Amino acid sequence: MRNWTFMMMPLLLAGCAGTYEPKPLTPKQLAELDEALAGKVAGEPQTCISRVPQTNLRVISNNVLLYRVSSKLTYKNELIGSCNGLTRGDIMVVRSFGSQMCRGDITTTVSPMSGIASGACALGDFIPYRTPKK
């Protein structure tokens, strides 16, 4: 009986797993994203990026972020799940190890006024957008 339980555990856990469908971006968010990535070309997705040099975070929606490394390089990250509160100014706390941020690193959002967690998600792949060389 005990072996049966261990063999069935993965099936039971799979039944609990739901699928996440991100909300489509609003026309305003799409315009902001298009403006931020104008003139840049998407590259191959990367699972990790370096924390150094410091990157500037720009929130497009509760599930789309931009990390601006320089005027020529910006990474787009589509979060796994939705970190509620990002668009209203909540603080993003990324739990990662080492000098890189990677796909799957757990992220929470915290209200700056109350300190209460408002959302949780994970980082997705980092898609580099680069200004093409002339």
From TrEMBL:
Highest taxon of the lineage: Bacteria
Database matches in PROSITE patterns: PROKAR_LIPOPROTEIN
Name of the protein in its database record: Lipoprotein
Native species: Sphingobium lactosutens DS20
